[in-house]
Amino acid sequence: MPDSFLSELIAQALSGLFSISVAPKDILLQKTRKEFKGQKTLVVFPYTKASGQSPEKTATMLGDYLKKADARILDFNVVKGFLNLELQDAVYLHHMAEILNTQQLATFPSVGETVLVEYSSPNTNKPLHLGHLRNNLLGWSVAALLQEAGFDVKKVSVINDRGIHICKSMVAYMRKGNEATPAAMQMKGDHLVGHFYVAFDAMYKAEVTALVSSGKEKEWAEANAPVMLEAKELLRRWEAGEEEVVSLWRTMNRWVYDGFAQTYKRMGVDFDKLYYESQTYLLGKKVVQDGLAQQVFYKESDGSVWMDLSAEGMDKKIVQRSDGTSVYITQDLGTALERQHDYHFARMIYVVGNEQDYHFKVLFKMLCKLGYAWAEKLFHLSYGMVELPEGKMKSREGTVVDADDLMEEMVNTSKEITTQLGKTEGLSESECRALYETIGLGAIKYYLLKVDPRKKMLFDPKESIDFQGNTGPFVQYTHARICSLLRKAEFSFSGISGDIKMSEREKNLLVLLAEYSEVIHDAAHHYNPGHLANYVYEVAKEYNHFYHDFPVMRESDASLKMFRLCLSAYTGMVIKKGFSLLGIAVPERM
Question: Backbone phi, then psi, for 298, in 5-degree steps?
Answer without folding.
Answer: -140, 160
